[in-house]
Amino acid sequence: MLELRAITAGYDRRAPVVRDASLAVAPGEAVGLLGPSGCGKSTLARVAALLHRPDAGTLLLDGTPVRHWRHRAPRELRTAFGVVFQQPRLSADPRLRLADLIAEPLRATGRREEVPTRVPELAGTVGLTPDLLTRRPHEVSDGQLQRACLARALVLRPRWLICDEMTAMLDASTTAALVAVVEDYRAATGAGLLAVGHDRALLDRWCDRTVHWDTVIEC
Asked: Which residue intervals define the domain ABC transporter in the entry (predicted)?
């Protein structure tokens, strides 16, 4: 179980973006978080993925409170999450070829021996051809780069996926393809999903349930 209890978070303690937000995702469950742009849902998603320490509140994973964040979190916690952000060009190192982008988490966690098999496997899963793997971010489209970012998020076989507006910048066919990849991964592994967005129809189709931001924050 992934639980966020009374989370307050932001980038200035005097003006938090998120105030007293609570949300739970059961193992294997897909939850959509719906809300307008700028409401704070992306910040809450970063807290859920251990990428941003909250100012107040508790994050529990399988009933155990999380005490450390980002690089200070134990490796088994960090690798339990796969994250895909809205803007792939802001989350991809422009110097890396797509193959190296996908392999980043494997190298960072000392699993280099898996790179030759895992990278081509996931590239095929997300629809990247071998020639695209040799290109850098500026040489591919947003959709192709987002496919690589999704492959990177899946490469460590995470138990939880956090998709923060993953399809917001994509066309309909690429959106459908990437949603299908996530659904297939969840069906095969039982991973939980927190999908953040402002498209109610997409979240309702994709998720087991959709919650609105107004029901997550303490009014």
From this structure: 2-218
